[in-house]
Structures are given as C-alpha cells and as structure tokens.
Amino acid sequence: MARVDLHVHSKYSKHPSNWFLQRIGASESYTDPQEVFDIARDRGMDFVTITDHNKIEGSLLLKEKYPERAFTGVESTAYFLEEKCKVHILIYGLDERQYGEVQRLRTDIYQLRDFIKENRLAHSVAHGTYSVNGKLSLAVLEKLILLFDVFEGINGARIRMHNNTWIRALMNLTPEIIEDLYGRHRIEPMSTDPWIKGFTGGSDDHAGLFIGKTFTVTDTNSIEGFISALRDKKTLPDGRHNDY
Asked: What CATH number belongs to 2-133+151-170+199-239?
C-alpha cells in the first residue's frame, strides 16, 4: 500500500485567502519544498507532492530532484461564474504545458473540467463543504457532484463532522440521484458511473506541522500506479481530522 499526503502547501503559496493574513501582508506558507519532502518521507509517505495555490514551482522542484518519489500538483482556484463562487480543485501529474492551460481555463470551471476530462488528469475537489468566498450553495455542491469524480474525503484542516458528513453524502449517491441532478442542472457527468466517487485525504498543511498526518492510500508501488488509481477512483483517505 502506498501513502501520499495529497494536500500540502509550500512557500510558493504566497497569497492567503484569510483576510487577517492579507491585512498584515503575510504569506500563506513559509515551508520550503525540501522541508515538505523530508517531513513527508519521515512520516511514512511513499511519494510526495505539493499543491500550492495556482503555483506549480514547488512540486516541479521536487519532481526534478526526486523523479521516483515526487510528482506535480496544484490547488487551482476555479470559478462558477453564475454564482460568483470560488472552489478549489486539486490536480496531479500535470506537466508545465497542462499547468499553463489550467491557469488559462480556471476562471470558468466548466472549461477547466472539460480540460481535466480530455487530458485524463488526476484530480480531487478540495474541502467541498468549505465556502472559499462565502458563495457556496447546495446548487454548487450538486454541480460539483456532476462535474467531478474524486473528492477530498478527509481534509486535515476540517473537523471530523464536516469531513464525514460530506463523504457519507457522496457514498450514498445512486444512478437515480445523478439523473435527478442532471435534470436540474443539465451538466454532463464526468464518467459513465458518476454515482461512484473516489476519495482522497490530505493534511492541507501550511506550516509544516501536520504534513503526512492525513493521507491517501492505494495498492501500488509506483507513482504511475498511484496517479492511475486516482483517475480510476480506487483511492481512500486516512489519518487525522482537525479535532483537538
């Protein structure tokens, strides 16, 4: 079984979403990519990625230095224009050209989803029940269910109740529910079996404290196998929730 913390930030996440950090001019994270790698490996992670906000530099550095142990990732801020709602989509295994397209398309979540689908990019919807800019609604959650096939089941920065409520809702989807959602929103689902979702886990660490304490598991011994399992909805979340 391979373990990977699929949601980690480094010093390349420079623009915080928290209003107080914005006010004082602080960066969202100060963790060096090498430190992310070392901590993750020390805590039993088989492979390592970094998912900075709309930046790929940190994960590229690790991939170039440790090609057998690291792969690229990004936490892309995408927009539902009709609701003016921001959501975060984690994307993995992309190259620099694909990253450039993600940057270009992320202002329209429908175009971004189509690009992810056409390029078979491994993905996960981050902290689905967290409202990034106060615009999240039930309608947006329903659209996300149609648009994407993999969701963050355990986000280490969210409490157990929020994580478990969301994962239970996704695990209880049926073909009939998907058909009803399609009738409401007229969004073509990601796959032919969209009621079956894949799940990931990640610490959402910004300070180096919780790296590797929330993670994703699947039965593989290679990066290629791990990313393939993500695409095929064959991963599970494990580890810490933000319960003190």
From this structure: 3.20.20.140
